[in-house]
Design brief:
about 130 residues; two-stranded antiparallel ribbon; 6 strands
Length: about 130
Amino acid sequence: MGLVDATYYCNFYFSEVLEAAYQNKSRSFDFLLDGKKLNDYGPIIPPYQSYVHASLPPILNAMELFELIKSGLANGTNENDVNVLEVLQDQYQQLQSWAGDPCLPVGFTWDWLDCNTDNPPRVAEL
């Protein structure tokens, strides 16, 4: 799989079969991208094991790959606006079920407000 010249973040999720752990068997592995080994410092050993010479391959349950987008992102709604919205939520019980960022992602703002497109976005109207 060829990847374009960009920054990527990967999350890998592994599991272990208890039977293998009880039989003094262990797992280790290398990460390869286009046939090139990415971990130059030696095999990766799960933190719950300490044996360097593995007898089993890894069990990979899932992998997430994120590409860093360098434009069009905001860190979140303006902090002062968020603080005011929290006060309103404390005062009015019908607003307490709303959670998450009130203005992001664009197109999914809270139903009872409108946001502008500044960076960071601001609450423009309630």
